[in-house]
Each structure stands twice: as C-alpha cells, then as structure tokens.
Amino acid sequence: MIQRTPTAIEARPQDIDSHSWQQLLADSVTTPEALLQELGLSPQRWLSGAQAGHRLFPIRVPQPYLDRIERGNAADPLLRQILPLQDEAAERAGYVRDPLAEREATASPGLIRKYRSRALLMVTGQCAINCRYCFRRHFPYDEHRLSPSERTAVLNTLAAAPEVNEVILSGGDPLAVNDRLLARWAHDLATLPQLRRIRIHSRLPVVIPQRICDELLAWMTATRLQVVLVVHINHPNELDSQTRHALNRLKAAGVTLLNQSVALRGVNDDADTLAALSEALFESGVLPYYLHAFDPVAGAHHFDVSDDEARQLVRTLVERLPGFLVPKLVREQPGRAGKTPIDLHF
C-alpha cells in the first residue's frame, strides 16, 4: 500500500483557496505534456502512452487533486487514476462501450430508469476529472443535453411515475454545473409530491473541495427534500484537510454523506488501503457504502480486479473493521432491479 501525508500542498500557490471553484475547474490540466510536467514524470517514459490514451478519452485534472499526487512517483495511487496509458488502446474480449446497457434504460433524453423507485437524471455531461476507469467514458452525452422544453418533459415523466420517490442527479458530474440551475432543479423536483429525496453522485467535493460553497449549501438547505450526497473516493490519500473541511460543511448542513469506491488494480486492491479508507471516511463524517466490482468498460481492462480477489479483500475487512465500516461488495448488472450483492463465500 502506498500511503503518505501529502506534502505538495505546501508548495502550491498560497492563493489557491481564493480562486473560485469555477476558475479551478477551468484551469484544469488538459494535455499529456502539462500533466507530465506538473508531476515531474519523464516524457521519454510516459508521453507516448499518455498521448495514446488521451486521444481516446481526454485528460482533465484540476489543481487541488494534482496537489495530492507525489511528484515523480509513477506508482502513486492517485496518479494511476488519471494518467492515460497505452493499455487503453488495447481491445479485450468482454470489455464494451456500454457495460451497464444504459442506452436500453433511457426513458427520455436526460432520464434513465433502471430501478422502480429511483430515476437517474443526467444533469450534465461535464466532469471535473476524467478518471481513466470511468464506466461512462464512451457515454453519448450529446444525446442527453436538456433544453428547457426537455426539462419540462422530464418533470412530466416523473410526475406520471408515482412509484419514483428518489431522483439521482448524475452525469458527468452534477456539481460541475452552476448552483442557479441546480437550485431550479431542486425547486421543481420538490413540487412532485411523491419525491422524498435528491441523491447526488459527485466527485467534485474530492477533486475541487472549493465547490462546497455558500451558494451550494443555500439551495441544499432550502429544499424540503432530503439531500444525500454520494462521494467517490477510492484511496485515503484523496482525503486531505481541504476535502475534510468541505465534507464537514456538508454534514453541518444536514446532508447525508455516503461513499462508493471501485475496486481498482494498482489503486486500492489491498486490504490495508481499504481499511485505512474506511477509517478516514468515517473520521470525515462519511459512511462507507459500496465497493463496486469493476465494470468491464472498453479501454480500462488494466484496472480490473477479479470478483474472487474482491471477495477476499472484503472478507479481510470484515475481520478487521466494525460492520458499519465495511462497504457492501456489489456489481451493477443490466436489467436487475438493484445492485447485485456479491456473496463473500465465508
């Protein structure tokens, strides 16, 4: 396991906290050359592969996340999540562009119905960071851009579905859009009497903690709907002081905080790392929720952790941690009514 106390923050510009989250998002590193220079990695060793992967799925990494990566350490587990490799161009049997068959579950532009009581709303196709293992790296976001009339159609579709009591804001990353639009969605969704919750799946509190701003908290605390935020943290080094501060602000505002991770080769495929992650999450007010088995998406086969390996990891966590700190090992399978638990075979 690679775990350290991040030191790069001490060397970053002292005024980074004065930057708006929008500016930090706009200033993200978006080329292989800039990424390697920022992290002190040899172009002779890494540039060719980074360029090949970048052509398939563009680089995007914001500065606050880069600050947590150890310069010159090619084995850094955070680096592995964002560095394109030549491996991404290799085809592997069984690894497909739409591993969760989400095209088949599309109810209308921007709205995906995979489960009876929940609907997934594609708020945006934009992300703050392009994780190399993303199961939506090939998703046709252009087909889900919502015009004002299409937003009305989404609300009408939900109004006609009394069984739906929770709307999940997804993307892309829903927190990559401005708070005026999010506040409008929260207001409009709250007019639907059957809805109880808004659930938000976002990586932004991790990669740009400054995103947890007063405007965001204002609409979250104003809605009658319970707000649940599911963050995506795969390694304890992703939790620095800025991230913990952002999570504490959300918790103080009454937001329920959960975490989902993905079992990733070279990132968290050892029990020490996962145990440290669960402890660090709980200290930050976040409850470990899911550990996802890897979705077989084309271009990311080199991250795959087998189900047998994942079972052994979680069996070890059961031995080491109290039950409330052990994430559920699950797989999402197209057509199923919910996430499928993976039996640990004790």
Helix/strand layout:
Elements: H1 21-26, H2 32-39, H3 43-56, H4 63-66, H5 77-82, E1 106-108, E2 111-112, E3 118-122, H6 148-159, E4 166-170, H7 179-190, E5 197-202, H8 204-207, H9 214-222, E6 226-232, H10 241-252, E7 256-262, H11 271-283, E8 287-292, H12 307-320, E9 328-331, E10 340-341
Parallel strand pairs: 3-4, 4-5, 5-6, 6-7, 7-8, 8-9
Antiparallel strand pairs: 1-2, 2-3, 9-10
Helix pairs in contact: 2-3, 7-9
Word description of this protein:
The chain has 346 residues and is α/β, with parallel strands linked by helices. The chain folds into 2 domains: 20-89, no CATH class; 106-341, TIM Barrel, CATH 3.20.20.70. The chain has helices at residues 21-26, 32-39, 43-56, 63-66, 77-82, 148-159, 179-190, 204-207, 214-222, 241-252, 271-283, 307-320, and strands at residues 106-108, 111-112, 118-122, 166-170, 197-202, 226-232, 256-262, 287-292, 328-331, 340-341. Strands 1-2-3-4-5-6-7-8-9-10 form a 10-stranded mixed sheet. Helix 11 links the parallel strand 7 (256-262) and strand 8 (287-292). Helix 2 crosses helix 3 (43-56) and helix 7 (179-190) runs parallel beside helix 9 (214-222). The longest helix is centred in the first third of the chain and has 14 residues, at 43-56. It is globular. The model is unreliable at 1-14 (pLDDT under 50).
